[in-house]
């Protein structure tokens, strides 16, 4: 079985996403530049995606990668594979010129796990729709940019079923809208 097929099966088994969503995600992001994995005699053991981003911090535009979909086959867990894969991925991304790497823990229990690899929490997410008048001094240095359109149905779906989802392109928006 191909690594791609194994990756889709591991994703489905781990995250319980619909096959259609997984197929569409892979259509968008499965490339040698974004998919990182380990295997044992042809069997996929651990995987993650590192999707490219451009982060704007004040006057600076950073080339960043968003690490997502980190998962390890049940038979290979508790062996440090995910940690080593994250470290290897970070090193490869650094060699390719990326300025930053970030991730979003799927739930609070994973925050401590990722801290072991040097990640720091930037805060706990809060769902909601905000306006500039809602901004406080806590938001100093950030700018709220108005969306061209707001899809309340999609927002509610993501807020309830896909915590910590980040939409960063029209293609990704379509992926989540169709899932």
From TrEMBL:
Q: Which residues cross the membrane?
A: none
- What GO molecular function terms would the record report? aminoglycoside N-acetyltransferase activity
Reading the lineage from the top rank, the first entry is Bacteria
Q: Where is the N-acetyltransferase domain positioned along the sequence?
A: 1-136
UniProt xrefs under Pfam families:
Acetyltransf_9
Mind telling me which InterPro entries this protein's record contains? Acetyltransferase_Eis, Acyl_CoA_acyltransferase, GNAT_dom
Q: Which residues form the signal peptide?
A: none
**BP-aspect Gene Ontology terms:** aminoglycoside antibiotic catabolic process
Q: What is this protein called?
A: GNAT family N-acetyltransferase
- The organism of origin for this protein: Candidatus Onthomorpha intestinigallinarum
């Amino acid at each position: 079985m191909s690594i791609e097929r194994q990756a889709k099966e591991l994703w489905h088994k781990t995250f319980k996403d619909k096959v259609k969503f997984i197929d569409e995600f892979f259509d968008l992001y499965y490339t040698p530049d974004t998919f990182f994995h380990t295997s044992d005699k042809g069997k996929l053991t651990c995987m993650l995606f590192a999707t490219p981003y451009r982060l704007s911090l004040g006057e600076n535009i950073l080339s960043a990668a968003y690490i997502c979909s980190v998962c390890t086959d049940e038979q290979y867990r508790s062996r440090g594979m995910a940690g080593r894969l994250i470290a290897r991925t970070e090193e490869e991304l650094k060699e390719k010129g990326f300025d930053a790497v970030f991730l979003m823990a799927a739930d609070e229990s994973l925050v401590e796990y990722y801290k072991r690899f040097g990640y720091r929490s930037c805060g706990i997410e809060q769902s909601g729709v905000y306006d500039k008048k809602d901004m406080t001094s806590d938001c100093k240095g950030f700018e709220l940019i108005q969306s061209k359109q707001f899809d309340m149905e999609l927002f509610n779906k993501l807020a309830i079923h896909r915590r910590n989802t980040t939409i960063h392109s029209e293609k990704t928006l379509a992926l989540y809208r169709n899932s």
